[in-house]
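Hi! If you just cloned this repository, the fastest way to understand the data is to look at a raw example. We've pasted two of them here, unedited. The first protein comes first, obviously.
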Amino acid sequence: MPELPEVEVVRRGLADHVSGRTIETLALSGHRVARRHEPGPRDLEDRLAGRTITGAHRRGKYLWLSPADGPEAVPDEGLIVHLGMSGQMLVTDGDDPVVKHTHARVRFVDEGSELRFVDQRTFGGLALAELVDGVPSSVAHIALDPFDPDYDREAVVRDVKRRRSGIKRVLLNQTVVSGIGNIYADEALWRAGVHGERPANELTKPAIGRLLDHARDVMAQALARGGTSFDALYVNVNGASGYFDRSLSAYGQEGRPCPRCGATMRREQFMNRSSTSCPRCQVRPRFARA
């Protein structure tokens, strides 16, 4: 699933290519693309026709466009874009062939490029939600991410310190701090020299702060390289892949030497996914299952 850097790359592309443009038609294929929009796909098509996209926004991994009744109007709804595992928002020429798994096409009144939503695994989709203080109601419970101007690092440190779960589980909790997924959690933990099963409340507040800073730094570096792409499913709005995977030190590096100490990187089961860490730099807590 795309994490903060990948979603931010898409958001920037949408802001550049569709902000300020008025929708002529939205054409949806099938019902799954609008399954999170309770009134159904026809309602979504009707409600977006004639509205102007006034901006593209993000909180953590969550992305939305802000349609309004005119370029100067204040939007009261957000069009949430759920990318899921394989969703792509692509800006294409209207005459380009429609590729397989295209579930939505947005045509604009200026007759320029159009916006297409392509999703091979159909886990993603589109939905309208009421805006509450500028944030869709279904996203309001998500914590601020480290790049938000209102992000309170010390408050997050205090919250993390109160939790007894393993620190990686806490990093992935989007109600504590948003945007961090499996890739950047592994990278931040490796940089901090902390095993993901270490209980959060056993870390000192300075150590938690450093870990959060590592998470922000590694996501900023990934963002500068267009995000992390392991296959053709994550691309920006122009269809280009990111290449931060070439700079990863932990995630996906099982069996390779640790870039810091040379020990062989290990892969362990974690929830329904996996964690990769260094057995020497990131000592597993005694109680943790091997």
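Ok, and the second one:
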Amino acid sequence: MLIGLPRETKDHENRVGMTPSAVKTLTRHGHRVLVESGAGNGSYLADEEYLGAGATIVSRAEDAWAAQMVVKVKEPTAAEYAYLHPGLILFTYLHLASDRALTLALLERGVTGVAYETVQTDGGQLPLLTPMSEVAGRMATQIGATYLQKTYGGRGVLMGGVPGVAPANVAILGAGIVGTNAARVAVGSGAQVTVLDISHDRLKYLDDIYHGRLQTRISDESNIEEMVCSADLVIGAVLIPGGRTPWLVTAGMLPNMRRGAVIVDVAVDQGGCVETTRATTHSDPTYEVDGVLHYGVANMPSAVPRTSTFALNAQTAPYALHLANEGLDALRRDPVLRHGLNTHAGAMTHPAIAKEFDLKYIDPLQAL
């Protein structure tokens, strides 16, 4: 199979879809890989390393996209829609539930869109989302701590406090991978942490491992409002696999929050769990609403691209090889990978996205 690895075009997106090691595995299996020159620069992976792995370096993005399969990190930007073509297998994060324009572009151009974030095991795990959720969760606390500094627009609170002065109050909405990792860093910094979730089992798990060093609350409207309005830092860590995230923090709650409080909404790439959240970029990461600082960067892990690239590739590379070796048969035979199929030959093959945009849903096996 001819496989393309283009440079990422999203603002400050420094990750790369494949490491030289992943490319080497593909070329050893007889596949040809076209790498756009400089694709790995943001992660300090040089063209020479890709050449050594057996890749061909191409100078233009369109050359890398003129392949049977393209492997990326982030969804195509509007400028890349022109490269989409019928029969293309696009293997990347797509997050279509918050992007109608991209959804329609993939459908109109007959692209087979396989989304990392919806590849799902029988047990409900999301193996290709997990590594970036781990990174984003840990970063969310670090970023929140930074923006709580008055020099960054926050209320001037130190996460762990000092003797005689209370630590920051941190409310984490969601006890999944993102929330658990955010809690790990927040507890380690000495903050007063409360995690909210609808799952008693997840809350019991956190209660058991932290032995009272954090608080847990059932996620309902009353508890959310109470915790959010008393928090210095709110971390949105809610996930609906493939679907748009519901608003748990409403615009009406913000006037009752602490002035200079910070919201870091990790769920922003699926629409966000805070009503006033909108996607921002690393170049312009924050904005203020009702005296509350919002951070909504949708590609947060790209700030630590080398860590993120290697963590992501450790999970995605075997699936990329599976797709390269078997093509569409990999989707037909592997139910885990088939969960990742969002679009194929003009058909919408993911129920949550179809519902979000009122599109006709077609079962993936039927579409294939």
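That's it. A detail worth noticing about the second one: The chain has a mean pLDDT of 96.
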